[in-house]
Amino acid sequence: MNTIVINNYSKLKPSLFFLPLLLLVAIVVFLYSQHSLDADKYVQVQKDWFFFINHHLGQFPGILYNVTQLGDALIILSFLSIFIVYAPKMWEALISASLVSTVFSNSLKNIFGVPRPAVVFDNTSFIIVGNTAVGHASLPSGHSITVFTTLTVLLFALMPGKWSHKMVWVFSVIIIGLMIAFTRVGVGAHYPLDVTIGSIVGYISGLIGIFISRKFRIWAWIGNKKYYPIIILLLLVCCILLISKIMDENLVIYYLALISLFVALYKIIYAVVKK
């Protein structure tokens, strides 16, 4: 599988950045045409969209709250931990992409300083699931960035060969990504454009991570069994963090993530013992 991932990554061209950058420009042009480039008007121009999406998605709070946890890097990356064994090249890209996405997320949030919905609107006028998100860090959605950063790395890593299969794969990943991202509107934490822009930034971050992994061998040690004890230790730390989350909030998604980590640990420990 690692060979497939390497081959798929080697085929990618810088032109893949064109579409997401074009989409970002289109959003800026739209906001400019609506005189909504400042924070207050940015919020007001999508007020109706926010209430509409929040109302309809908020009817399923249990599902919503579980799915939105996939925007947590610990959770979504736990589900991909098995690929440390079978496709370490994917994890090289994931680590670089995650670091890039963190820089983008923190920097852009500080630059824009857009207030959260709970800061702007009466909290009884819309649905809030889980803890109330406050502050002025709404744009872009960090959860959406994390989701699309991860899914972009996965998307190109496992890209099928046949054109028809490619279309189905790309469409499926994008739809799944958007469904996860828009749960942030459903729980009352973000506006629609927050998650849209976050998704695009996440896609860009994922691509950058892939190109970094292709050019530099910074994380090449991940595929070396000599370093598996370090990886085992890191996964055990992740297990402890997940158990802590389970103790705080007994969510199904946490159990599934923990099971994924246990499977990865078993495979890695087996490889070490077998060696």
Could you walk me through the main structural features you see in this protein, from its secondary elements to its overall organization?
The protein has 275 residues and is mainly α. The chain has a domain at 2-10 and 60-221. The chain has 15 helices and no strands. It has helices at residues 2-10, 18-33, 39-45, 47-57, 61-68, 73-79, 83-86, 88-112, 117-120, 142-157, 163-181, 183-186, 192-215, 228-248, 252-274. The radius of gyration is 19 Å and the shape is globular.
Write the layout of secondary structure elements.
Blueprint lengths: L1 H9 L7 H16 L5 H7 L1 H11 L3 H8 L4 H7 L3 H4 L1 H25 L4 H4 L21 H16 L5 H19 L1 H4 L5 H24 L12 H21 L3 H23 L1
Which features would summarize this protein structure in a list?
275 residues; single chain; globular; mainly alpha
Sum this structure up briefly.
With 275 residues, this protein is mostly helical. The protein has helices at 2-10, 18-33, 39-45, 47-57, 61-68, 73-79, 83-86, 88-112, 117-120, 142-157, 163-181, 183-186, 192-215, 228-248, 252-274.
Please tell me how large the radius of gyration is.
Answer: 19 Å
Task: List the uncertain runs.
Answer: none
CA(first)-CA(last) distance? 20 Å
From the spread of the alpha carbons, the general shape counts as: globular
Share in helix: over 70%
Structural class: mainly alpha
